Inverse folding.
């Protein structure tokens, strides 16, 4: 910790104790150079997810509950456990945090979810895609199914 008085880089901790509400650690420090004392407060940095930019231009806070609800709905009556859904959401959240972005489009998140579901259960993938992509007619839906079938055939050939 750099000294606020002389800017010397080395200080030593004389005393540490929790603050009044227990949310931080109060540390008394002494500068190795000028011997002046000062107090620092150390607290846990909160994880902040980026804002979600909706298709209509609105921005809203990331909501884990909404993601889980959408995935649960897609996986309804499918052999996908809640633990699997939670692991997929954890991977999604990891990608969100790793992106370092302040805003992420809902379309990006939707694609990530579809990729996760595609790996776990094709029926859940198609269910989610049908709602997420808002197919206008049966031809769009059939096109998506054909793409899914092609990717499955390619996957089987390479195994």
């Amino acid at each position: 910790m750099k000294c606020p008085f002389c800017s010397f880089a080395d200080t030593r901790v004389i005393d540490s104790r929790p603050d009044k509400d227990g949310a931080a650690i109060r540390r008394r420090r002494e500068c190795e150079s000028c011997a002046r004392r000062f107090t620092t407060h150390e607290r846990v940095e909160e994880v902040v997810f980026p804002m979600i930019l909706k298709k209509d231009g609105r921005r809203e806070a990331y909501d884990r509950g909404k993601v889980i609800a959408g995935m649960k709905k897609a996986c309804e009556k499918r052999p996908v456990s809640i633990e699997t859904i939670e692991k997929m959401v954890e991977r999604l959240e990891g990608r969100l945090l790793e992106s370092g972005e302040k805003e992420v489009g809902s379309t990006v998140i939707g694609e990530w979810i579809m990729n996760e579901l595609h790996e776990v259960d094709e029926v859940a993938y198609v269910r989610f895609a049908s709602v997420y992509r808002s197919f206008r007619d049966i031809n769009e839906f059939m096109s998506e199914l054909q793409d899914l079938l092609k990717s499955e055939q390619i996957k089987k050939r390479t195994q």
About this structure: The chain has five helices and six strands.
